[in-house]
Design a protein that fits this description.
Bound molecules: nicotinamide-adenine-dinucleotide
Helix content: 40-55%
Oligomer: single chain
Shape: globular
Number of strands: 13
Structural class: alpha/beta
Order of helices and strands: EEHEHEHEHEEEEEHHEHEHHEHHHH
Distance between the termini: 28 Å
Number of helices: 13
Largest sheet: 7 strands, parallel
Strand content: 15-25%
Strand order of the largest sheet: 5-4-3-6-11-12-13
Length: 387
């Protein structure tokens, strides 16, 4: 079929297999330029490794570091007139390339929060890898279903007060105001359940119990801090409460299991998750403009290659890895702050990299890639051999 983008709100409901493959190949090329420099392990489990930071982690470890990678994801294959999700196509492309290069790369598709998927992963590790020495926890999920059927949904709200600030309608380029209402206690607790550290801890406990976790294994989860501008909605908001929980979980895991559990604070980037957060898309488009002008802009793959080559043993005062160092640089932040105050609908292009935002957005779903013939008939049904 001929596949076109269908954008609905923060999401594109179609994905293009050839375009996703191209994006994965570009990331592989970046990872390969780091060959010999990636200093992480050789057998990695990536939980949430089909898009965004998890996918880039997997590519950096596999194609930069020669690691065997097992990925857990929640993606949908093609069915009838529906295309598969981008994460499905990314994974198919990655695993095809890995096979060609003699690298082990398999996936398990299903709900990472469930005991069933944890058991399947453990069985696959026992059968194929023996043990893993690296566990990347890069889930970004809207909800979590508990064993008793209770469903917790994460909220992207403030804590305490209503927060009103600038926002942008990304479709029309109109700069306006948005008010974000505070989360209830219940919503905060639910957000911590979904995006906090409990499930990460469950994974490490299950792997350790099953004897498939290498002694002193590295385990990473990803966080975000950002400038004071976004603190009410991010760091001090309901998602921030979950990230705080993740931080304490890292400390607890290190103590309890003797693993090297770390939080890596990454840069704000356009991913399927970040586009849904109020205020953040405007911030990202101003940030892109400032970082590109200063020639320090990075995408997920550049961030993850820097993480695994240079940053694994460099910590801030709280023991966190800071990959947001270029973003938080004073010069960048002062440019973003000025832009934030000045930006209006009629001067948007002067301050915001809206084109860069949309370029990244469409590329996430395999669209707008150079050299791809989007009028060509493609087979949307791309198989993945699950572990
Ligand atoms: P993403 O949406 O691109 O990736 C999410 C991944 O989780 C996908 O592989 C998806 O298949 C998987 N997933 C979701 N629900 C699942 C489930 N129930 N079971 C199994 N797999 C599931 O998100 P991302 O932006 O790369 O976020 C990854 C992490 O990085 C998050 O912790 C996020 O907070 C953090 N982070 C993101 C940014 C940013 O700007 N995007 C910045 C710093 C930190």
């Amino acid at each position: 079929m001929v596949i076109e983008p269908k954008v609905r709100g923060f999401i594109c409901t179609t994905a293009h297999p050839t375009g996703c493959k191209k994006a994965v190949e570009e990331q592989i090329a970046v990872a390969k330029s780091y060959a010999g420099k990636i200093r992480a392990g050789k057998k990695a489990l990536i939980i949430g490794g089909s898009t965004g930071y998890g996918l880039a982690s997997r590519i950096a470890l596999a194609f930069g570091g020669g690691a065997a990678t097992l990925n857990v994801m929640f993606e949908r294959p093609a069915a009838g007139v529906r295309t598969a999700t981008a994460g499905w196509y990314n994974t198919a492309a990655l695993e095809e390339r890995a096979r060609e290069e003699g690298l082990y790369a398999k996936s398990i598709n299903g709900d990472a929060f469930s005991a069933e998927i944890k058991e399947r992963v453990i069985a696959a590790i026992k059968r194929d890898l023996g043990k893993v020495d690296t566990v990347v926890y890069s889930l970004a999920a809207p909800r979590r279903t508990m064993p008793d059927g209770t469903v917790y949904s994460s909220a992207l709200k403030t804590v305490g007060d209503v927060f009103t600030d600038k926002t942008i309608d990304m479709r029309t380029g109109e700069v306006g105001e948005v008010s974000v209402t505070p989360a209830t206690e219940e919503e905060i607790d639910a957000t911590v359940k979904v995006m906090g550290g409990e499930d990460w801890a469950d994974w490490i406990a299950a792997l350790d119990n099953a004897g498939v976790l290498e002694k002193g294994a590295l385990t990473l989860a990803y966080s975000y801090i950002g400038p004071t501008l976004t603190h009410p909605i991010y760091r001090d908001g309901s998602i921030g409460m979950a990230k705080r929980d993740l931080y304490y979980t890292a400390k607890a895991l290190t103590k309890k299991y003797g693993v090297n559990a770390r939080i890596s604070v990454n840069k704000a980037l356009v991913t399927q998750s970040s586009s849904a957060i109020p205020v953040v898309p405007l911030y990202i488009s101003l940030l892109y403009k400032a970082m590109k002008a200063a020639n320090v802009h990075e995408g997920c793959i550049e961030q993850m290659c820097r993480l695994f080559s240079d940053k694994l043993n460099v910590f801030d005062d709280e023991g966190q890895i800071r990959l947001d160092d270029y973003e938080m640089d004073e010069k960048i932040q002062s440019a973003v702050k000025k832009a934030w105050q000045a930006v209006r609908t009629d001067n948007l292009s002067e301050y915001a990299d809206l084109d860069g935002y949309w370029h990244d957005f469409y590329r996430m779903f395999g669209f707008r890639a150079d050299g791809v013939d989007y009028s060509a008939d493609v087979d949307a049904d791309v198989p993945i051999a699950e572990a």
